[in-house]
Specification:
Layout lengths: L1 H12 L8 H7 L5 H14 L11 H8 L4 H14 L2 H14 L5 H17 L7 H9 L4 H17 L8 H12 L8 E2 L2 E2 L1 H15 L3 H19 L4 H16 L4 H16 L2
Antiparallel strand pairs: 1-2
């Protein structure tokens, strides 16, 4: 059955109708073997979307796996929920996912954060105290969990920056820690510390500092530091960070000193091969 499901995925990739196999994917997600279960979930998320009526058949399986003692089963169910979530699945699993935000495994916490963010996208009023939840997770001791919460703040700050300006100092501190290589080396990319976390925080800071002198003044020092460190990395990821720093600086309340530095950085782009 595992082999046939993988073949069915290939059939649909080629553009043919493989709907005859969809129910078998759902049935395989109910297996006790973790390998079979993961293939069942994988096939289900590739075959179905959140509007498919067959999703309702997965709800009981998802609820059971969210309560499992095996963290791989929990991860598999969270992964499936993030891809297939709709109002029905959200209503049935919200309390369990909320409980997993304090799970001992950081892998589970990270996936749970992503699912909560997905639930908020589906129905913002359906997730109570979402701001409080995400602010708590922003302080998680594991960087991967903290960085997962940045997706929520990125969207929320873009919509209503005035509500989150009090968090500017927290984002500044996090960015400073990343730049100063305080994160484990696992997050490095070509010796550059956590570039995607840096990029996301810079985008958030750009929203928070726009047309606000007081908030922007908190950001000037750290963004200048980030720009200098990025320019010391003469590789593609370094150039990408320089570009993001420039975008952030140009969004903030104008600073003559920073604008002069930016003009020199832009000149380097034109002269770079």
């Amino acid at each position: 059955m595992k082999d046939l499901l993988i073949r069915s995925i290939y059939v649909e990739m080629l553009g043919h109708d493989g709907s005859f196999s969809h129910i078998h994917a759902i049935n395989m997600a109910q297996e006790k073997s973790i390998l079979s279960k993961r293939i069942g979930y994988l096939a289900s998320t590739l075959f179905l979307d959140h509007e498919n009526d067959l999703c309702i058949l997965l709800v009981a399986t998802l609820q059971r796996d969210l309560e499992s003692d095996q963290y791989l089963e929990v991860l598999s169910s969270l992964q499936a929920i993030s891809r297939l979530a709709n109002i029905q699945i959200m209503t049935a699993t919200l309390a369990q996912v909320h409980k997993l935000l304090s799970h001992p495994s950081d892998f589970v916490r990270k996936k749970a954060v992503m699912v909560m963010y997905r639930f908020w996208q589906i129905n913002p009023s359906g997730v109570e105290d979402i701001d409080k939840i995400m602010k708590t997770l922003l302080c998680d001791k594991v960087p991967s969990v903290m960085s997962a919460s940045l997706n929520y703040f990125h969207e929320a700050c873009k919509k209503s920056p005035e509500k989150y300006r009090d968090l500017a100092s927290s984002f500044v501190v996090i960015l400073k820690q990343v730049i100063e290589h305080k994160l484990p080396k696992d997050y490095d990319y070509h010796r550059t510390p956590a570039p995607w976390i840096q990029t996301k925080i810079m985008e958030i800071l750009a929203f928070l500092g726009k047309e606000d002198k007081e908030t922007s003044s908190q950001i000037y020092e750290v963004i200048q530091m980030a720009l200098k460190r990025a320019e010391d990395q003469p590789i593609n990821i370094g150039h990408a960070l320089v570009y993001q720093c420039i975008k952030c600086i140009l969004s903030l309340y104008p600073s003559d000193n920073l604008l002069e530095i930016v003009s020199k950085s832009i000149t380097k782009f034109f002269s770079n091969d």
